[in-house]
Write a structure and sequence with these properties.
By secondary structure, the chain is mainly alpha-helical. It contains 17 helices and no strands. It is globular and about 60 Å long.
Length: about 450
Amino acid sequence: MAAIDFSSGSVKKRIIAQAIPMTTAQAVQLLYNVVDRIYIGHLEGVGDLALTGLGITFPVIILIAAFTNLLGTGGNALFSIARGRGDDEEAGKILGNVFALLCSASVVLMAFCFAFRRPILFLFGASEQSFFYADQYLRIYLFGTVFSMLSTGLNGYINAQGYPRIGMMTTVLGAGLNILLDPLFIFVFDMGVSGAALATVISQGVSALWVLQFLTGKSAPVTIRKEWIRVEKARTLRIMGLGLPGFVMQGTNSLVSIVCNNQLQAYGGDLYVGILTVINSVREIASLPLSGLSGGAQPVMGFNYGAKQYGRVKESIRFISGLGCIYGLATWLLVMLCPRQLIGIFSSDPQTIEVGARMLNIYFFGFFFMAFMFAGQTTYQALGKAKQAIFFSLLRKAVIVVPMTLLLPAVGFGVEGVFLAEPISNFFGALACFITMWLTLYRKL
């Protein structure tokens, strides 16, 4: 099967051809967690508290995703650049190195988080009531760590070779199975939160097998070969150097989630922690097209940068910036018009819907600014500019969101201050990232 040459044909069509199946794949991937939240939120009598418990586990899940980004995303950028140079052997060695790293890291993370899950969950904002449900979910979910990291961390190497439809099937198979197993385990077998976790682990296992089947078979241009499965120091440092922005982004997301949970617990209680869980679900859904557009652009930009087709790289930047901004404006309008309906998908409790709708309007204010953040970070990562990507990841989350989340409730905004910190960070952080990228990188291409 011949690899696709991204340096020819329409740039817009190349990006869209990658972005549509990748967005679909990410949407299906999101169903792993969103379907769990929908079913759990509607459990009779305990739904809202169980949903709060599930929200407490998010920082752990995000942390696992952060390490997946550290080892997978950075290697993906190097992989695309090597292919653009025509060096498939180096691309294969990068892939083998990433595979070895993901396997090793997943075992360590699973063992650590399982052994210390009780103090971890209380540190992350659990109450005595919500801990019961958080522990039920996490102790089973952790056994699927290796499946989660391999399926997510390696799937990009299918997309980077020009086969996003095959990459899409990774998540379609797993999420489709999860949708079927969730009601069976949660309601028919009466397993509740534990059933949702078990369904997720089984589904992630199927996804991981699909990825490995393709990347070790004869169909892929660059495959995982036994002689290349090794952790090589110099290559690992380059992989982690470029993966660090993704790690920082996810790691600071985990930090923000921890701070928000604790502040909400202090100023509002379990109700508001559960509402944030729902709002995060809406945000993840709303961000999917932006993430898919960025993911579709990254291999195209990286390939053309390696091939020294700088005009095509600039065209890619303009395209994802403009289209992303239009989408962001449309999404903001939709959320403003239908907040109660969106919250109602995850809960039938009148108080949760009423309070949640007000918090959703605050949280999503100026959502379209996120398009500029995605465009700036994608450009930095695709072109191997790790330091800049790391800096702006830290700026938005660690420098703006976390201090605002701690400050605003204390100076009179109360629980609403936790939700207000997000739009403030979107405005200042996203514009700083995009404008700097445009002035210092775009003009020099």
